[in-house]
Design goal:
CATH superfamily of the largest domain: Dihydrodipicolinate Reductase, domain 2
Number of domains: 2
Number of helices: 14
CATH architecture of the largest domain: 2-Layer Sandwich
Strand order of the largest sheet: 15-14-13-8-12-11-10-16
Helix content: 25-40%
CATH class of the largest domain: Alpha Beta
Shape: globular
Bound molecules: nicotinamide-adenine-dinucleotide
Distance between the termini: 45 Å
CATH topology of the largest domain: Dihydrodipicolinate Reductase, domain 2
Largest sheet: 8 strands, mixed
Length: 474
């Protein structure tokens, strides 16, 4: 057990002061006064505010909660987590869970309203109770991947709009049902791949789309290595911590003995709950590939393992420790996805090359290519916030949420609708299947089937542990 590369993400917030500072920093970045007490909870009349519930109060909620709270026209009414409050998350001393999130929200509004008694944020262990509240308009789903589809579909059926973290779903079938539910229940759905709201990523993709590299032949997408080492063969189960509803956490996943490294944050390295860094960071870098190539709504048509590696048998972690697959699009463009020190996407064309990191650093060859201005008659990709040019992570997160809230009001699709999230997730999931099967197969994106690999077709869905059942959407 232990950290492999050390926690290298910046800590967002742990203490109350840190959290309020985090909201203040996001607010400062987007240019709104977050903590100035106001008559009501912000500029908007209460009736115009979007009432939001948060489902999942772990590591990523530290980014999601401030990214929502800075917007004055929303109010977070409730938070839900199957963990009441505890340690074991990304950083050893972090205490997260629904009580921590509730405290953040209440203290934020206490400060904002000037009412130290503010206690209006409710907590739930069971997301179905939160979804049963008629006064909640939208939910943010920030739970492990094995829960995305069940919770998102239940939310949409209950009439809620959804902001759902990436990767969209655990399987292609689950993602397809989510997409059908969005249209059937006429809901707004934002996939949480926030780099669609990055000005630098958009500029990079516009350069590619407008032919600045000539004809693109090859794309490289890189994913971070695992941040933690797996407990090896012979690992021992642990007692379930008090306040943690482990059976609910497992939900539709197979019965399994508790271990702290199974549940908190590290679930992403275990195939029962996720698909490793191939889908975790791949959901970002392959999304850039898809955007730059104009492939939203489709995927490559051929996949092949390219030297991926997995943990030794008997380890707790089961997903690839080294991502390496090759894919080919219908027009012949090749995509190589692999583990590198730092996540990025690189496009190679007949007249130039371009590399963009998730941090927004853009390198081109020739060097001045990056300064090329996109003309008025060329392809312009959508902006979350028109006119935004600063490429700052806090801003990107908050802008992606802003774009969602605007879509909730306008009832028009946001920048990363469910179908876009599904294409990117499918690419990553199919790459992962090639890695697991150690073979080459072809894929029909329209039929969502492999014409030549039954094993792949058998991996498009997964059984769910009772009583959980995925609704098949007509
Ligand atoms: N967009 C990004 O850059 C980014 C970054 C990190 C994580 N994420 C995504 O955010 C999601 C959560 O990741 P994390 O790192 O916060 O994981 P985490 O394990 O730190 O937190 C997840 C929380 O969800 C809770 N949970 C699990 N099942 C639940 C259920 N049925 N109902 C309510 N709560 C439940 C857990 O108890 C835990 O507190 C994942 O989809 C992940 O891919 C996105």
């Amino acid at each position: 057990m232990g950290s492999l590369n050390g926690p290298k993400q910046h800590r967002v917030s742990v203490t109350r002061r840190d959290f309020l500072k985090a909201v203040g920093a996001v607010a400062g970045a987007i240019g709104v006064p977050a903590l100035v007490p106001s008559r009501v909870l912000g500029a908007d009349a209460p009736s115009n505010r979007i009432h939001v519930g948060l489902i999942g109060c772990g590591h990523q909620s530290q980014r999601i909660v401030p990214s929502f709270l800075v917007h004055d026209d929303m109010q977070m009414l409730a938070v839900c987590d199957v963990n009441r409050r505890g340690i074991g998350y990304y950083y050893p001393d972090q205490v997260l869970g629904r009580e921590t999130a509730r405290q953040w929200v209440n203290e934020h509004y206490a400060e904002k309203t000037g009412n130290p008694q503010y206690q209006a944020c409710d907590t739930y262990n069971d997301f179905r109770e939160l979804l049963g509240r008629a006064d909640i308009d939208a939910v943010a789903i920030v739970v492990p991947d094995h829960w995305h589809a069940l919770i998102a579909i239940a939310a949409m059926k209950a009439g809620k709009d959804v902001y759902c973290e990436k990767p969209l779903a655990l399987t292609i079938h689950q993602g397809r049902q989510m997409a059908k539910a969005v249209r059937k229940y006429n809901r707004i759905f934002q996939t949480g791949g926030q780099f669609r709201s990055s000005p630098n990523v958009r500029h990079a993709c516009e350069l590619v789309r407008n032919g600045r590299l000539g004809e693109v032949k090859t794309v490289y997408t890189w994913v971070d290595p695992n941040s933690f080492e797996s407990p090896g063969p012979g690992w021992q189960p642990m007692p379930v911590p008090e306040g943690f509803d482990y059976d609910f956490w497992l939900g539709p996943a197979p019965e399994a003995p508790y271990h702290v490294e199974r549940c908190f944050h590290r679930w992403r390295y275990i195939l029962d709950y996720s698909n490793g860094q191939t889908t975790n960071f791949g959901a970002h870098t392959n999304d850039i590939a898809q955007w730059g190539l104009g492939m939203d709504g489709t995927t490559p048509v051929e996949f092949e393992d390219n030297g991926s590696e997995f943990p030794p048998a008997g380890s707790l972690f089961t997903a690839a420790t080294k991502t390496a697959f090759r894919a080919r699009y219908a027009g012949g463009i090749e995509l190589f996805c692999e583990t590198r020190k730092s996540s990025a996407a690189k496009f190679e064309g007949t007249e130039g090359r371009l590399e963009i990191t998730l941090g927004g650093s853009l390198k081109t060859f020739p060097e001045n290519l990056k300064d090329s201005v996109i003309g008025p008659d060329e392809i312009h990709l959508p902006h979350s916030i028109p006119g935004r040019t600063e490429n700052v992570r806090k801003l990107i997160d908050a802008d992606h949420v802003r774009n969602f809230l605007d879509a909730v009001k306008s009832r028009k699709d946001p920048i990363e609708p469910v179908e876009t999230g599904l294409s990117t997730a499918s690419l990553c999931l199919l790459g992962n299947m090639a890695q697991i099967l150690k073979r080459r197969f072809t894929w029909d994106p329209a039929a969502e089937r492999s014409p030549d690999c039954d094993e792949v077709n058998g991996m498009l869905t997964r059984p769910m542990r009772e009583p959980w059942k995925l609704e098949e959407i007509a």
